[in-house]
Amino acid sequence: MPSWYPKGYFVQNTYFDFFNYAGLHRPVLLYTTPTTYIDDITVTTGVDQDTGLVDYQIFVQGSEHFQLEVYLLDEEGKVVAQGTGSQGRLQVPNVHLWWPYLMHEHPAYLYSLEVRLTAQMAAGPVSDFYTLPVGIRTVAVTERQFLINGKPFYFHGVNKHEDADIRGKGFDWPLLVKDFNLLRWLGANAFRTSHYPYAEEVMQLCDRYGIVVIDESPGLGIMLVQSYSNVSLQHHLEVMGELVRRDKNHPSVVMWSVANEPTSFLKPAAYYFKTLIAHTKALDPSRPVTFVTNSNYEADLGAPYVDVICVNSYYSWYHDYGHMEVIQLQLATEFENWYRTYQKPIIQSEYGAETIAGFHQDPPLMFSEEYQKGLLEQYHLVLDQKRKEYVVGELIWNFADFMTDQSPQRAVGNRKGIFTRQRQPKAAAFLLRERYWKLANETGHHRSAAKSQCLENSPFAL
Hints:
Blueprint: E1 37-48, E2 51-61, E3 67-73, E4 79-84, E5 87-92, E6 111-121, E7 124-134, E8 139-141, E9 146-148, E10 151-152, E11 155-159, H1 173-186, E12 190-192, H2 200-209, E13 212-216, H3 230-247, E14 253-260, H4 269-283, E15 289-293, E16 309-312, H5 327-342, E17 346-350, H6 369-386, E18 391-396, H7 427-443, H8 447-454
Parallel strand pairs: 11-12, 11-18, 12-13, 13-14, 14-15, 15-16, 16-17, 17-18
Antiparallel strand pairs: 1-2, 2-5, 3-4, 3-6, 6-7, 8-9, 9-10
Helix pairs in contact: 3-4, 5-6, 7-8
């Protein structure tokens, strides 16, 4: 009703469930370059028995007349391979592979690629120098498995947000270190950058800690038919180009996610996602591509084009309120339908329940810690069956409570975190910790390390 609001009054509504804040969220750095400089480096890696393969391509701006020297150094600073020119292949004997956290006793091994440029200009010699961390590893997908370095990898991790009180979305080193310590305590080996690319510092820590990343574009709120227009598609293609260019050299990034919960049952979605996924694969043939769906398996028109099916579901939360007894049947049926239709590995990319820390109810009621814990346990019973077949991962929603727009459904933000917004554990955090360390002990190659961490007296010790 017009009389309800002042003249000119408007509100910008957003189709996503987190608070986007405003202003500069991350550091801004100004830098200079020589007149001729190293503009970009692309590295892809492979393995031939015990020899690592590092294919590099170097892009130079400012001149076509230059010399490039390339050196690969191990963690001790010893040169293990070297080459010249703007592209080539380095062979690394007795290679140390980059392994995920808890999958190997020496995870996250990083070499250093040193690139040295010299150019003779009219004003005299010009030089430039760049060092790029390199993790040598392979990624592959079969009908039932996700493989890292040829071995089955099971994602047991979280979804996150760049969010905390005090700084909101602003980058904060102490918070980042705290979060990584909690991930390691939890026994998590992976997370998805829901629902946008995270700060570069986050990706660098993932490389160093061995935390595997599903790297997601800001492709959310794709809800209306107009969202699938050519204008939107062209912009989305540009965004994926920017994301791949920035994060292509991170060994921790094992898969691209082009969108979250689009209305992929709408007719234009088929061409949209076929084009978008093909474009992303052309930019980077070395990684699988997905998007995260909550559409029905029969209606989803984008699913034929992904390499891994990522499914969000909230059984006994957004429907069948309070009836956790139906979760096992509904979840098992959903998995079976998706796999029968597509014969692709499946990740439970979101599941969870809203929980107010300190709320306790017996029998469990919604919003209590007992309900969150009980809901997770019902999901885990099915996940334990299906991970023996074709389910290759589970990512809880969410790592921590986070702020949202105000609504009657959100009690000062989204409370589905297993940690509070201040990073204090709810009961579900301890349940997940026990589960993730058990999964790590079953699937990893680090049993002594996992055992020692599990038996620490302090619950938050590393």
